[in-house]
Amino acid sequence: MPLTIVRQDITQMRVDAIVNAANTDLAMGGGVCGAIFQAAGPAQMQAACDRIAPIQTGEAVLTPGFRLPAKFVIHAVGPVYRPGHAEQSRRLLYSAYTKSLQLALAKRCRSIAFPLISSGIYGYPKDEALQVATAAIQDFLAEHDMEVYLVVFDRVAFAVSEKLLGAVENYLDDHYVDIHRIQRRELLDVEYRAMRSALEPPCAAPAPMAAIPSLDERMEQLDEPFNATLLRLIDAKGKTDAQVYRRANIDRKLFSKIRTGKGYTPGKRTILALAIALELTLEETDDLLKRAGYALSHSRKFDVIVEFFIVSGIYDVFEINQVLFQYDQPLLGAS
User: Which residues of the chain form beta strands (DSSP E)?
Assistant: First the structure.
């Protein structure tokens, strides 16, 4: 999947490159920087950094990963946050991400893992740092294919807009049915028919039964298959394949597999990501899910959160995934 938020120790990530939240002198520091140096081998890493230091804020340089699982470490310098110069801070932080991604691309990396740069002792507000990180990564992925991970060590280091979370929480309060609550059990159709039959007077003679369709006749009446519906919707919405799979946060190979059909049906999370990319209404989303054998349920928190974004007309899969991550739910995109 192109962009995934994970809770993990970045030094344990098995990717082509990890990014170090560095200082301009490329000296071993604390936090993420210290952990990366220690895992790589502090003497070797410091010697490699000394040969290319110093660098400017917003820049990035590359060293070997040494003892790390990652082949490379990209050292990116984010800004110290200055409230009076918010736009300059944003520009420099955006540059740190972009320069790192460009270095990874030049080294033909297929995967890269970032910490949330500048959100620690450099004082960048965590929700704003997350917005800048997502924007930079999203802009890069609009033109290039790469697996990008945003790594947080714990949920405290990750912050989503309180206003958005409040709106989601209100929607959950109104729509989420906790499966542990005692719910009134609805009568099954068969029970209803039996009850109605017992209350009605007996009929003189039963009506003749309609002929039961054969299996062949039923097969001829099947609804339009999922992949045919998807392609029709792409054309109807005036979008290209590339626009759809990138906005859905899935890679080109998976989308090609979905497009050709041949008996393959993607998972529910992937279908919902495609619905978001196509900006489908809730009714259209329900129909697309149904054609693949799925449905939204108010007994699943994941489903209700995604439904909130659809009915609110918010079709940014990265923003949705931030909220899903905050609620410890699986993310949209490739399963």
Answer: 3-7, 17-22, 60-64, 72-77, 111-114, 147-152
Report the C-alpha gap between 236 and 223 in whole angstroms.
18
pLDDT tens sequence across 16-50:
999 999 999 999 998 899 999 999 999 999 999 99
Question: Tell me: the pLDDT tens digits for 221-261?
Answer: 446 888 889 999 999 999 999 999 999 999 888 999 988 87
Per-residue model confidence (pLDDT) at position 261:
74
Q: Encode pLDDT of 86-105 as tens digits.
A: 999 999 999 999 999 999 99
CA 86 to chain centre: 27
74: β partners: 19, 62
| Rounded Cα–Cα distance for residues 173 and 168 (Å) | 9
User: Would you state the pLDDT for residue 151?
Assistant: 93
* Predicted local distance difference test score (pLDDT) of residue 156: 59
What does the alpha-carbon distance between residue 247 and residue 24 come to, in Å, rounded to a whole number?
Answer: 35
Q: Give the C-alpha separation, 269 to 67, whole Å.
A: 36
Q: Tell me, what amino acid is at 267?
A: G
Cβ-in-10-Å burial (0-12, 13-18, 19+) of 113 comes to buried
Determine how many CB atoms are found less than 10 A away from the CB of residue 178: 10
- The torsion of the CA quartet 241, 244, 248, 253, rounded to 10 degrees, works out to 0
Please answer whether residues 332 and 317 qualify as being in contact, where contact means their C-beta atoms are separated by less than 8 angstroms. yes
Let me know: does 55 contact 61? Beta carbons within 8 Å: yes
Chain centroid to Cα 253, Å, comes to 17
d(CA 297, CA 300): 6
Please give the DSSP secondary-structure letter assigned to residue 84. G
| pTM given for the model | 0.80
For 50, phi then psi, to 5°, come to -60, -30
Burial 199-212 (b: 16+ CB within 10 A, else e): eeeeeeeeeeeeee
